[in-house]
Structures are given as structure tokens and as C-alpha cells.
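Fold it.
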Amino acid sequence: MADTTDHDYSTGAAGIVPADERRSRYHFVALWVTLAAGFTYLFLGFQYHDAGYSLLQAVGAGAIGAVAYFLYALPAAYLGSTTGQTHALLTRSILGKVGSALVSLLLVGVAAGWTAFAFNLLATLFDGLYGWGHVVVVSVVLAVLGIANNLFGFKGIAAFARWVAAPLMIVWVLYLVVKGIGTMPDDALSAKPQPSAELPFLTGVGVAIGSVMWGNEPDTWRYGKPKFLWPAPAFGIAFAVGLVLFVAGGWMMAELSGASQFDFGPAFRYTVEYSLFGALWLGGVVAAVLIVAINDGNYYEMINGGQNVLGTIPGWKRWHTCLLMAVIAAVFTWQFPDVQDGFYTVASWSSIALPSTTVVMCVDQFWLRRRRVDAVPTWREAAFANWPGLVAVIIAVAFGAWGLGLLPGQDAAPGIGIVPVETWVLAGLIYAALAAAVAGTPNAAVVLGFSRRLRESTTVLINEGDTSR
């Protein structure tokens, strides 16, 4: 996420981050470590314990998920850094009007789902620490207030999270894990807990992928250096924190407290008393600051999606979009407790929907290399649709939804491997095949969704490929 509210290069009029606005690698390491030091990964480890995973299995599932995400995230980040554009703006050039509008809705919907989960979790933690009750009402209020950073640019909150709360949380969880390993019997660490929920191991890897997945990586990394491996240190350190250390910490929380996933609040209180010297106030402050700061990323994703569609309306300001996204987040948060297996549902959709569109755009830019995106087309200039791209995304996401058991009326997932990875590969291969099939046809530029301004100048690229980049 960017640290500015004055100009975020999120509208078509000026939608490309210039070279002199790019940030240092240190900035991204600090940012991604903050994003990784989150309660989502503690909750993930908690769920693994509830599903009967041993500590080694829990850490293994998280680590494999991290590797899978890493293989996706590097080209996704490179897409942002080489173009300087948001995920939503790129879809105008690559997927056309229809694709851009649909992806903007996905950006808003997926991020709103994560916001709803996060603030329901925070309200649950407050209830566990202080016995507040009224979890749904508190979560809705927190969700509305949580957009304040994006609306008013409270940089102090983000700085406090990055330099104080996140390091404190990491030290705390590390102490929890070390103390737990030192005090628990060896057989307890290697044994599988009695499962209260079914989660096959490969499905658990998919949940880990979904928990770390943003899907709109270009939004963040358009501020980075345009080098393929440049983000690797930030990703590596963040994964070690979130999907290894914090997953282990969540597993320890469940084991030591004897609680199930439905008692995460009381388990958190027990953990504070066990490893934070009973400082309930400090546990509440750390939880609030980190969850609010991390959800800056979710609101940022929602706002960029909204700005793509609404930002060019005369008189429309970015803060209008902020307010609209706050209302949407509040509605999602209110309804979240009624969603069955809410965490699994949000993580699963997150692992397949937006990443499939990102993979299609990466294939378009780095494999097919037939389309230039060095300018953001207006909505009038943008093509109606990139039909091969849309078909590839729809088929891949439908497959992923079936593989994860998300379709209406579906009793259970069929168990066919690491479904998110299979979905991404399917999206890329289908798009490459369909694009190749139509490349030599007379209407190739229209079918592939080239903007009107670029059709004549790119006809040769459609037929022969662009070898100049």
C-alpha cells in the first residue's frame, strides 16, 4: 500500500507511477513483515490444530503454501513494477471494459470479505480479553473506523504498527513458541490432536495460499524496482514470519489452551496470560493496531478497484470512494457471522479468483508479448472485452470453485490436489491456447481486446509477437 492520499496514481488520467516515486527494498521488507505479523496466521495455525494436524504438519502446510504463493507472486509483482499500474487499471488494457468492470467488483468483494473476517476476529479477541460481548456490533463499528487511515492519511498509526506493534508481536509469538516447545512434553509436540473438523493436508495447503494471497500484487509493487527477483527478500522474510512462525504460534495457542477454533477469543486471553505476563491491555492494543494497519491493505485494494470505475466521474474524489467502501465493508462485516466456514470460504475464493486474472495478464505480457500497456486507455478507448482472457478466467475459476467445494449445493471438495495452483496453471494455459488460436484471424485485435488507439499499431504484433521488449 502507498503512504499517500494526495495522489496515488489510481485513475486513468495519471495511472502510472513514475520512476522517481519508486520505493526502497527496505520499505517493502518492513511493509510485508507488518502484513505477515497478523492474527490471520495465528488463526490458521489454530485451525490446523483443530483439524488434527501435528505441529510439524501445520508448519509444513504453511511452508508449502508459502512456496506456492512465492512462485505466483514474483511474476505478479513484476507485472506491477514494469507497468507502474494498479491491477484494476491494467485490466482496462488487457481485459477490456467488461473484464475491467468484473475484476473491479472482484477486488472490492474479496477484500471486503477479508475485512469482514478481520474485524469479526478483532471483536472476538476483545470479547475474549475483556468480556465485551456484542461481537457483531463491535465488529461493524471497527470496520467503519478502520478505513480512517485511507481516508485521512493517519501515517502515525501505520508507522506505529510497522516499527512497534509488528516487532513486538513477532517477539511475543517467538517467545510463545520457544516457551511452548520447552515446557510441553515431546509426545505432545509430535502427536496429532483429536480433530474436530476435517481438513485434508493438501486442502490445508490451499487454505495457507488463500490466507497469504492478495491477488492485486501490482497495486503494491508498482512502487517497486522493475527487476524480477527484487521482491524476493521481502517475500521470504514475510513468509518465515507469517506462514511458519505465526502458524506455529497459533497451533501452540490451541494446544496450550485446549480450546477449539470457536474459542479463539478465550484462547487468546490464555495466551496473553501465558506468554505476555498477563498484560491484557497490551494484548488488546497490539491486536487492534496490527489488524487496523493490515486492513489498510484490504481497504486499499477495495479503493483502487472502486477508483478504476468511479475515479473518472466528473467531481468524484478519492474520499468519496473511501466512504463508499466503508459502507460496503460494514455490510460484509455484519453478514459475515452468517457465512458457513467463513474463514475457509474467504481464503478459498481469495486463492483462485483474482490470481487467475493476474496470471492471464502475466501470460499476456511476459509470454505472448503482443500488447503494450505503456499508457492507460480511457473507458471510451478501451476495447469491449478480451474474450479469450475472460473465457480462461471463467473456466479456471469455475474449476477452482468446484475443486474447493465452493459451488452451491456441493457437499464436499473432491480432493484433487493443491487446487489454487492447478487453477492458476489452467487459466494461463487456456488463455495462451485461445490467444494463439485467434491470432491469425482478421478480427484478432478486436477479439483479444486491444484498445482502439493501439489496434493499427499492434496488428503486426498480434500476428508475429513482440520481440522488441
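DSSP finds 19 helices and no strands in the chain.
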